[in-house]
Amino acid sequence: SWTLSVPLFNQMSNRTAAAQARIRYEQARVRMSDQRIQLELTVQQALNDQRAAYRQYLAAERAVNAQQASLAFTEERFEQGTATALDLTTAKANLQRSQADQIGARYNYLMAKKSLDILQGLPLEL
After folding, report:
1. Which residues, 6+ apart, have CB-to-CB distance to 97 below 8 Å?
2. Hey, how many other C-beta atoms are within 10 angstroms of the C-beta on 48?
3. Domain residue ranges of the chain, discontinuous segments joined by +
4. Which of 99, 76, 98 is nearest to 88 (CA)?
5. Phi and psi (nearest 5°) for 19?
6. What is residue 10's three-state secondary structure?
7. 3-class SS at 1?
8. What are the pLDDT digits (tens) for 44-80?
9. Do the Cβ atoms of 47 and 109 come closer than 8 Å?
């Protein structure tokens, strides 16, 4: 006796498996697209941060220059007797504060630059 087996459900399960594979493929493609967009946004934000930090550093540099000029002027006035010792001390303190701000701004700029370099795959060099 012969037996004939017709796989009625096999074709249906193949279609289901193929449909599931297509769905998984589309989901992976969407995830990859989302990750690419997220990476682009992260790099753009790092670039914006670096630019802002650089502008802040330039502003701090200008502030140091202004405080140096102010101190020189106050020293002149002090020597002429038109400024007090308190004026001179205040001018020196202002210069030191602006120099400290400049150091902080330079550090922030360098850190922002290194963060951007890392995101771009550049080697970390100190």
Report:
1. 67
2. 12
3. 10-119
4. 76
5. -65, -40
6. helix
7. coil
8. 999 999 999 999 999 999 999 999 999 999 999 999 9
9. no
